[in-house]
Design goal:
The structure holds 2 protein chains of 2 kinds.
Chain A: H1 3-11, H2 14-19, H3 25-37, H4 39-58, H5 65-85
Chain B: H1 11-19, H2 23-45, H3 48-64, H4 76-93, H5 95-99, H6 112-116, H7 128-134, H8 137-147, H9 153-160, H10 164-182
Chain lengths: 86, 183
Protein backbone atom coordinates (compact mmCIF):
# COMPACT_ATOMS: atom_id res chain seq x y z
CA UNK A 1 0.00 0.00 0.00
CA UNK A 2 1.31 3.44 -0.91
CA UNK A 3 1.68 6.19 1.67
CA UNK A 4 -1.27 8.07 0.13
CA UNK A 5 -3.42 4.99 0.40
CA UNK A 6 -2.55 4.52 4.05
CA UNK A 7 -3.38 8.18 4.61
CA UNK A 8 -6.69 7.76 2.79
CA UNK A 9 -7.51 4.67 4.84
CA UNK A 10 -6.83 6.56 8.07
CA UNK A 11 -8.98 9.46 6.88
CA UNK A 12 -12.05 7.28 6.34
CA UNK A 13 -12.50 7.39 10.12
CA UNK A 14 -12.61 3.61 10.43
CA UNK A 15 -9.85 3.59 13.06
CA UNK A 16 -11.92 5.83 15.34
CA UNK A 17 -14.88 3.47 14.96
CA UNK A 18 -12.56 0.54 15.67
CA UNK A 19 -11.41 2.05 18.96
CA UNK A 20 -15.01 2.94 19.86
CA UNK A 21 -16.02 -0.69 19.27
CA UNK A 22 -18.52 0.43 16.63
CA UNK A 23 -17.56 -1.82 13.68
CA UNK A 24 -18.47 -5.26 12.40
CA UNK A 25 -16.35 -8.31 13.28
CA UNK A 26 -15.14 -8.44 9.64
CA UNK A 27 -14.05 -4.80 9.67
CA UNK A 28 -12.38 -5.38 13.01
CA UNK A 29 -10.25 -8.16 11.59
CA UNK A 30 -9.43 -6.00 8.60
CA UNK A 31 -8.27 -3.10 10.80
CA UNK A 32 -6.20 -5.45 12.95
CA UNK A 33 -4.57 -6.88 9.83
CA UNK A 34 -3.79 -3.39 8.56
CA UNK A 35 -2.38 -2.35 11.93
CA UNK A 36 -0.10 -5.36 11.95
CA UNK A 37 1.18 -4.53 8.49
CA UNK A 38 1.51 -0.76 8.68
CA UNK A 39 3.14 0.92 11.68
CA UNK A 40 1.50 4.26 10.74
CA UNK A 41 -1.91 2.70 11.27
CA UNK A 42 -0.89 1.12 14.53
CA UNK A 43 0.46 4.47 15.73
CA UNK A 44 -2.73 6.24 14.69
CA UNK A 45 -4.83 3.77 16.68
CA UNK A 46 -2.62 4.29 19.73
CA UNK A 47 -3.10 8.07 19.51
CA UNK A 48 -6.89 7.71 19.25
CA UNK A 49 -6.92 5.37 22.24
CA UNK A 50 -4.84 7.69 24.39
CA UNK A 51 -7.03 10.69 23.61
CA UNK A 52 -10.27 8.83 24.35
CA UNK A 53 -8.87 7.43 27.58
CA UNK A 54 -7.94 10.94 28.71
CA UNK A 55 -11.40 12.17 27.74
CA UNK A 56 -13.02 9.42 29.83
CA UNK A 57 -10.84 10.36 32.79
CA UNK A 58 -11.90 13.96 32.42
CA UNK A 59 -15.52 12.81 32.55
CA UNK A 60 -15.03 10.36 35.41
CA UNK A 61 -17.72 9.80 38.03
CA UNK A 62 -16.35 8.69 41.42
CA UNK A 63 -18.10 5.64 42.88
CA UNK A 64 -19.35 5.74 46.46
CA UNK A 65 -16.74 4.81 49.06
CA UNK A 66 -18.22 1.46 50.04
CA UNK A 67 -18.17 0.16 46.47
CA UNK A 68 -14.39 -0.30 46.52
CA UNK A 69 -14.51 -2.87 49.28
CA UNK A 70 -17.54 -4.57 47.75
CA UNK A 71 -15.84 -4.97 44.36
CA UNK A 72 -12.53 -6.06 45.88
CA UNK A 73 -14.37 -8.64 47.98
CA UNK A 74 -16.30 -10.04 45.05
CA UNK A 75 -13.12 -10.36 43.01
CA UNK A 76 -10.93 -11.75 45.76
CA UNK A 77 -13.61 -14.34 46.54
CA UNK A 78 -13.24 -15.51 42.97
CA UNK A 79 -9.51 -15.30 43.52
CA UNK A 80 -9.71 -17.66 46.50
CA UNK A 81 -12.03 -20.03 44.63
CA UNK A 82 -9.69 -20.15 41.69
CA UNK A 83 -6.83 -21.03 43.98
CA UNK A 84 -8.83 -23.72 45.71
CA UNK A 85 -9.64 -25.38 42.46
CA UNK A 86 -6.02 -25.70 41.43
CA UNK B 1 -12.73 12.69 54.59
CA UNK B 2 -9.43 10.90 54.46
CA UNK B 3 -9.06 8.09 52.01
CA UNK B 4 -6.59 5.30 51.73
CA UNK B 5 -3.86 5.96 49.24
CA UNK B 6 -4.83 4.81 45.81
CA UNK B 7 -2.73 2.21 44.10
CA UNK B 8 -1.36 3.00 40.70
CA UNK B 9 0.80 0.88 38.44
CA UNK B 10 2.12 1.40 34.95
CA UNK B 11 -0.17 -0.18 32.38
CA UNK B 12 2.51 -2.75 31.60
CA UNK B 13 2.90 -3.76 35.24
CA UNK B 14 -0.84 -3.85 35.74
CA UNK B 15 -1.37 -6.15 32.76
CA UNK B 16 1.44 -8.35 33.98
CA UNK B 17 0.01 -8.68 37.48
CA UNK B 18 -3.51 -9.24 36.12
CA UNK B 19 -2.16 -12.10 34.03
CA UNK B 20 -0.56 -13.53 37.14
CA UNK B 21 -3.84 -13.15 39.03
CA UNK B 22 -2.16 -11.09 41.74
CA UNK B 23 -4.29 -9.50 44.40
CA UNK B 24 -2.66 -6.11 44.03
CA UNK B 25 -3.81 -6.07 40.42
CA UNK B 26 -7.43 -5.96 41.55
CA UNK B 27 -6.86 -2.95 43.76
CA UNK B 28 -4.85 -1.11 41.16
CA UNK B 29 -7.44 -1.89 38.51
CA UNK B 30 -10.17 -0.43 40.68
CA UNK B 31 -8.23 2.62 41.81
CA UNK B 32 -7.00 3.50 38.36
CA UNK B 33 -10.15 2.93 36.32
CA UNK B 34 -13.32 2.85 38.43
CA UNK B 35 -14.06 6.55 37.92
CA UNK B 36 -13.50 6.54 34.17
CA UNK B 37 -15.58 3.41 33.67
CA UNK B 38 -18.36 4.61 35.96
CA UNK B 39 -18.49 7.86 33.99
CA UNK B 40 -19.41 5.92 30.86
CA UNK B 41 -21.78 3.50 32.64
CA UNK B 42 -23.62 6.25 34.54
CA UNK B 43 -24.31 8.22 31.39
CA UNK B 44 -26.01 5.17 29.91
CA UNK B 45 -27.97 3.74 32.83
CA UNK B 46 -28.51 7.10 34.64
CA UNK B 47 -29.54 5.58 37.99
CA UNK B 48 -26.52 5.77 40.29
CA UNK B 49 -27.18 2.55 42.22
CA UNK B 50 -27.76 0.57 39.03
CA UNK B 51 -24.62 2.11 37.56
CA UNK B 52 -22.56 0.90 40.49
CA UNK B 53 -24.01 -2.61 40.09
CA UNK B 54 -23.02 -2.57 36.44
CA UNK B 55 -19.53 -1.34 37.38
CA UNK B 56 -19.14 -4.26 39.75
CA UNK B 57 -20.32 -6.72 37.09
CA UNK B 58 -17.92 -5.08 34.65
CA UNK B 59 -14.95 -5.62 36.96
CA UNK B 60 -15.97 -9.25 37.47
CA UNK B 61 -16.13 -9.75 33.71
CA UNK B 62 -12.77 -8.02 33.19
CA UNK B 63 -11.19 -10.20 35.85
CA UNK B 64 -12.75 -13.45 34.63
CA UNK B 65 -12.13 -12.93 30.94
CA UNK B 66 -8.73 -11.31 31.19
CA UNK B 67 -7.10 -14.03 29.13
CA UNK B 68 -8.98 -12.70 26.11
CA UNK B 69 -7.24 -9.32 26.36
CA UNK B 70 -4.13 -8.94 24.25
CA UNK B 71 -1.78 -5.95 24.34
CA UNK B 72 -1.34 -6.45 20.60
CA UNK B 73 -4.87 -5.24 20.05
CA UNK B 74 -4.52 -2.03 21.98
CA UNK B 75 -4.63 -0.33 25.31
CA UNK B 76 -6.16 -1.96 28.36
CA UNK B 77 -8.63 0.87 28.88
CA UNK B 78 -9.99 0.57 25.35
CA UNK B 79 -10.81 -3.08 25.96
CA UNK B 80 -12.34 -2.39 29.37
CA UNK B 81 -14.43 0.60 28.35
CA UNK B 82 -15.99 -1.39 25.53
CA UNK B 83 -16.94 -4.11 28.01
CA UNK B 84 -18.37 -1.49 30.39
CA UNK B 85 -20.39 0.19 27.65
CA UNK B 86 -21.79 -3.11 26.38
CA UNK B 87 -22.76 -4.21 29.88
CA UNK B 88 -24.49 -0.90 30.52
CA UNK B 89 -26.43 -1.18 27.25
CA UNK B 90 -27.37 -4.80 28.02
CA UNK B 91 -28.61 -3.62 31.41
CA UNK B 92 -30.96 -0.95 30.09
CA UNK B 93 -32.28 -3.34 27.46
CA UNK B 94 -32.85 -6.15 29.98
CA UNK B 95 -36.36 -7.14 30.97
CA UNK B 96 -35.97 -6.63 34.70
CA UNK B 97 -34.58 -3.16 34.16
CA UNK B 98 -37.51 -2.20 31.98
CA UNK B 99 -39.94 -3.69 34.47
CA UNK B 100 -38.52 -1.51 37.19
CA UNK B 101 -39.54 1.46 35.10
CA UNK B 102 -36.09 2.78 35.37
CA UNK B 103 -35.64 2.88 31.69
CA UNK B 104 -34.63 6.39 30.87
CA UNK B 105 -35.01 7.51 27.32
CA UNK B 106 -31.71 7.39 25.50
CA UNK B 107 -32.69 10.66 23.88
CA UNK B 108 -31.98 12.44 27.14
CA UNK B 109 -29.62 15.25 26.63
CA UNK B 110 -26.07 14.02 27.00
CA UNK B 111 -25.26 16.75 29.48
CA UNK B 112 -28.19 15.70 31.65
CA UNK B 113 -26.13 13.34 33.73
CA UNK B 114 -23.60 15.99 34.58
CA UNK B 115 -26.34 17.92 36.33
CA UNK B 116 -27.48 14.78 38.12
CA UNK B 117 -24.35 13.31 39.61
CA UNK B 118 -21.48 14.91 41.37
CA UNK B 119 -18.80 14.75 38.79
CA UNK B 120 -15.63 15.15 40.76
CA UNK B 121 -14.11 18.55 40.56
CA UNK B 122 -10.49 18.24 39.63
CA UNK B 123 -8.41 21.39 39.87
CA UNK B 124 -5.95 19.97 37.36
CA UNK B 125 -8.75 20.00 34.82
CA UNK B 126 -9.01 23.77 34.78
CA UNK B 127 -8.07 23.60 31.14
CA UNK B 128 -11.42 21.98 30.41
CA UNK B 129 -12.70 25.30 29.08
CA UNK B 130 -10.04 25.29 26.36
CA UNK B 131 -11.14 21.85 25.24
CA UNK B 132 -14.77 22.82 25.14
CA UNK B 133 -13.84 25.76 22.97
CA UNK B 134 -11.86 23.55 20.59
CA UNK B 135 -14.53 20.89 20.26
CA UNK B 136 -17.27 22.25 18.06
CA UNK B 137 -20.75 21.50 19.46
CA UNK B 138 -21.72 19.50 16.37
CA UNK B 139 -18.60 17.35 16.85
CA UNK B 140 -18.95 16.99 20.61
CA UNK B 141 -22.57 15.86 20.47
CA UNK B 142 -21.68 13.01 18.12
CA UNK B 143 -18.61 11.96 20.08
CA UNK B 144 -20.56 11.95 23.34
CA UNK B 145 -23.47 9.99 21.90
CA UNK B 146 -21.12 7.27 20.69
CA UNK B 147 -18.58 7.27 23.50
CA UNK B 148 -20.76 7.99 26.50
CA UNK B 149 -24.24 6.94 25.42
CA UNK B 150 -23.43 3.84 23.43
CA UNK B 151 -25.01 4.91 20.15
CA UNK B 152 -23.63 3.40 16.97
CA UNK B 153 -22.65 5.91 14.31
CA UNK B 154 -25.57 4.61 12.24
CA UNK B 155 -27.99 5.38 15.09
CA UNK B 156 -26.47 8.84 15.47
CA UNK B 157 -27.02 9.54 11.76
CA UNK B 158 -30.67 8.58 12.11
CA UNK B 159 -31.18 10.37 15.40
CA UNK B 160 -29.65 13.65 14.25
CA UNK B 161 -30.74 13.25 10.64
CA UNK B 162 -27.20 13.76 9.40
CA UNK B 163 -25.59 11.75 6.57
CA UNK B 164 -23.47 8.79 7.68
CA UNK B 165 -20.34 10.22 6.06
CA UNK B 166 -20.78 13.47 7.96
CA UNK B 167 -21.14 11.59 11.23
CA UNK B 168 -17.89 9.73 10.59
CA UNK B 169 -16.07 12.91 9.61
CA UNK B 170 -17.25 14.81 12.68
CA UNK B 171 -16.37 11.92 14.94
CA UNK B 172 -12.88 11.86 13.53
CA UNK B 173 -12.54 15.66 13.79
CA UNK B 174 -13.71 15.55 17.41
CA UNK B 175 -11.09 12.95 18.28
CA UNK B 176 -8.40 14.91 16.45
CA UNK B 177 -9.25 17.86 18.72
CA UNK B 178 -8.96 15.59 21.76
CA UNK B 179 -5.57 14.41 20.53
CA UNK B 180 -4.34 17.96 20.14
CA UNK B 181 -5.55 18.72 23.61
CA UNK B 182 -4.44 15.64 25.53
CA UNK B 183 -1.64 13.85 23.70
Amino acid sequence: MRVEDIRAYIETGILELYVLGDISPEEKLQVEGMAEKYPEIKAEIAEIEKALEAYALQNAVEPSNQLREQVLNSLTTGFANNNNRT
Amino acid sequence: MTKKRKISLSEEDLVHSLRNREKIAIEALYDMYSGSLLGVITRIVIDEAVAEDVLQETFIKIWNSFQSYSTEKGRLFTWMVNIARNMAIDKIRSKDFKNQNKNQELENNVTFIDEQVNTVYKPELMGIKDLVEKLKPEQKVILDLVYFKGYTHVEVAEELDVPLGTVKTRLRMAIIQLRKYFN
